[in-house]
Amino acid sequence: MSLKLLISLISLSVLLSPAISGHHHTVKKWCGKTPYAQPCEYFLTNNPKYIKPIKHMTDFFKLSVQLALDRALHAQTHTYKLGSMCRNEREKEAWADCLELYEYTIHRLNKTVDPTTEWSNDDAQTWLSTALTSLETCQEGFEALGIADNVYPLMSNNVSMLISNTLAMNN
Hints:
Helix content is about 75%, strand content about 0%. The chain is mainly α.
């Protein structure tokens, strides 16, 4: 029985290998057109959720916005958990502001990926720009208070780069 399972797994991997290899090549080609190719390639090739056909720029744009949304949700969850690490009231306020700014970012990204929302390229550009501005405001809040050395580095992630990539594609 285990020999049959092993043979089945080997057969499956041989059959899927060209498809996965082709996906990596396609992702590399499309991500190479963005300002931040490395996080684009990394996330789109290391999660089976993103193994989808990319034939047109619109396919890549939708996939990239979904990736940015997924990473923003992940970052928001991570940021929420950092509240207990705030050393003083100022850090706690900056952290709370960042949580609110992440909510705003996620809301804007959701509007862009929602298939029931009709939007133009200008609408998407506006929503993506405000999403990116929200994340930049989060960072600036810590810097303005002179407390960017404790909690903020732990919040660092690739979401801003991924949103920048979507902005570049939509422009």
